[in-house]
TrEMBL record:
PROSITE patterns: IG_LIKE. Residues 1-19 form the signal peptide. CDD domains: Ig. Keywords: Disulfide bond, Glycoprotein, Immunoglobulin domain, Signal. This is Ig-like domain-containing protein. It comes from the Eukaryota. SMART domains: IG (SM00409), IGc2 (SM00408).
């Protein structure tokens, strides 16, 4: 019968285990951790409480008869909350990673709990490097790579304010730290930012803008519509183009540059001498495109 009593006693002990959360706790170097027990606040003091770290190492705090005995390494770094036997630990260092145990006796009942704390460095030095920032639309790919310091990093890319997802055109590699756009279009100007997280912090990189060059879909239209114009009529030529960044324009008559620079060229009261091959050149940093037609 003695052994049965023992078994019941240990079952009872086992049932009392767990006044601390089971899951692993994470905190940052330099931060603060509060080990909050699940005990409800009590008026009647605990007969004794002891908090210890990594079993074999010295105690953190031992409370008996309302007297606190604090381990020398913990002097000035802890606050003990007598009503719940909870503990605050400050100025955390990597050496504080380990197992924390509390044993408390209250009203003749032994309560204990155990939890694991992991201290992490915060994320730092987040940098984005681009294979190129000056690109020509549809003519190739661009890779952005994100680097950062710190443990347990996870990466995410932002395009403007939305998250970048992988697709036929977009590859995410190296654990998400590299972003490759296979065929760049003018809509891929960004700004792109890399968001790096670990269990204790998140850092977002500076934005990277891509300059996608190349006026495309160029069109030169006349008003009245293209054809032969009567001497003395007014003609307006408009050069239209889809371009980012916006294009600048140059106008030519039979290959000679005209002073005009806008997207529209106005010819008032045209004379025979103005007959010829008018062309518009639209350009931005990367690429030039021609379009032309004849007038008479
Ligand atoms: C405490 O224990 C953990 C493993 O539970 C170990 O990684 C850590 O180095 C120990 N810390 C100290 C200071 O002994
Ligand atoms: C902490 O409490 C437990 C349970 O009461 C006891 O076994 C252990 O010896 C105590 N440790 C210290 C350092 O007082
Ligand atoms: C950025 O990437 C380019 C090309 O991939 C490489 O040559 C350069 O060294 C990288 N710069 C840094 C700071 O990593
Ligand atoms: C970036 O966002 C723009 C506009 O929302 C979209 O058209 C483009 O495809 C996106 N590019 C990438 C690489 O996600
Ligand atoms: C990137 O583009 C945004 C708008 O899209 C602009 O506000 C920002 O100044 C640009 N940054 C750089 C470095 O060019
Ligand atoms: C008009 O000028 C453009 C640009 O110089 C040239 O490519 C085109 O062949 C010319 N057209 C005619 C009909 O001369």
């Amino acid at each position: 019968m003695v052994s049965l009593q023992k078994v019941i006693f240990f079952l009872w002990l086992f049932a009392k285990v767990g006044v601390l959360p089971d899951d692993r706790l994470n905190a940052a170097v330099g931060g603060t951790m509060i080990f909050t027990t699940t005990m409800s606040p009590t008026e009647k003091p605990f007969s004794s409480v002891n908090w210890s770290f990594n079993v074999s190492t010295p105690i953190i705090i031992f409370v008996i008869n309302a007297e606190n005995i604090i381990g020398p390494e913990y002097e000035g770094r802890i606050t003990f909350f007598p009503s719940t036997a909870s503990l605050e630990l400050r100025s955390l260092t990597l050496d504080d990673t380990g197992e924390y145990t509390v044993n408390a006796v209250h009203d003749g009942t032994l309560l204990n709990g155990r939890t694991t704390l992991v201290i992490h460095e915060k994320v730092s030095s987040v940098l984005v490097n681009s294979s190129s920032t000056d690109l020509v639309e549809f003519s190739g790919s661009v890779s952005l790579s994100c680097s950062a310091s710190g443990p347990s990093l996870s990466f995410l890319w932002l395009n403007g304010s939305s998250e970048v997802t992988a697709s036929d055109r977009v590859q995410l590699t190296d654990g998400g730290s590299s972003l490759t756009i296979i065929t760049v279009t003018r809509f891929d100007q960004g700004p792109f930012r890399c968001r790096v997280s670990n269990p204790v912090s998140t850092v977002i990189s500076d934005p990277v803008n891509l300059s996608i060059n190349g006026p495309e879909n160029m069109d030169l239209i006349s008003s009245p519509p293209q054809g032969y114009f009567a001497v003395g009529s007014d003609i307006s030529l408009t050069c239209s183009v889809g371009s980012r960044p916006p294009a600048h324009f140059k106008w030519f008559l039979n290959g000679d540059q005209l002073p005009d620079t806008g997207s529209e060229l106005r010819l008032m009261d045209v004379q025979m001498s103005q007959s010829g091959n008018y062309s518009c050149q639209a350009f931005n940093t990367g690429k030039k495109v021609f379009s032309s037609f004849l007038t008479c």
